[in-house]
Every structure is written in C-alpha cells, then in structure tokens.
Amino acid sequence: MDAQPGKIILLNGASSAGKSTLCRAIQAQIDEPFLQFSLDFFMFGHDVLPKRRDERGLFAWSSMRPKLFGGYFGCLSALAAAGNNLVVDYIIETPGQFRQLSDALHAFDVFLVGVHCPLPELERREQQRGDRGQGDARRDLETVHTFTPYDLEVDSTLPADENAATIIAAWAARTRPGLLGR
Fold it and tell me: Which of 46, 61, 98, 149 is most buried, judging by how many CB atoms fall within 10 Å of its CB?
C-alpha cells in the first residue's frame, strides 16, 4: 500500500520565539499524528555535531553549516514522502534559504506560520534559556519575517495552547494547500 504524502505545519520565527513549545502544544491538540522535527535536534544536546571546531578546514562551521541545513531539508522531504505528518520549527534566515526550503518541500502541503515575539521578550527568553548566544534573537528578528509570506501569523506572547488551537483551526479550515505547495 502506498503512503499518502505527509502534511507539514512549519513554524518560522526568531530564536527563543517559542516555536518548539508551540510545536508540542500542536501535537497535543491536533487530531492526527504529527512528528515534531527540529533542526535543534541536530544543533543542541543530541551529540550530532562534532565537538571539535576548526576556524578553517573540515571541522569549520562555515563548511559544515550548508551541508547540515541541506541534509535537514532533505530529511523533512523524506519524512513527508514516507507519509509522516510533521510539525516543524525553524528559523528561515535568508531569502536564499527560503528558496532552498521551498524547493525541497514544493511537492508537499506546507502550512507556513510566522511566530512573532517582541524583542524584549525574545531577549528575556534567550537569557533565561542560557543555551543560545546572546544577540541571536535580535539578529534573527531583524530579518526572519522580512521576506517570507505566511499562511497564518501568531503572537507568541499569547499562551501556546491558545496559539496551537488557532493554528489547528486555520489549518483545518483552509481550502487549498499552504503557500509552499502552490
């Protein structure tokens, strides 16, 4: 039996905007199984990246980064092609990265959600987390929402359960595939 392609709810926002928390809230409320799949699984606390870092050469982040991101996009596509529904949190950093992600996911129904959070709250969360570089949230906020069209936008200062309900209702009520699938 051939699996139907999976559907994707993709949350885009600055670092510390609450995307992962919102993904978990969506998973808890939605009436279909959705796998949470985040680039953070590779980046933080899962020992995927080598500990060794060189300024130049094989272990340079500038060399590893594009390959890691390209592989991550391929993972999303492969998971959805196998019939898995996904709820994804990601920071789309540049128009080129948006095009690369769009190319990888163009065959799937992707519902793209902008997760907004004011800078003072982002900075408070970033400092409280302690696992992100100080200033990452500010840098992200300056660009992350400037070039990306959305199917829906939410304010992450609202409770995650409330935003999850809003996202699920909008996702269920739509009459055509999400923006990336058009």
Answer: 98
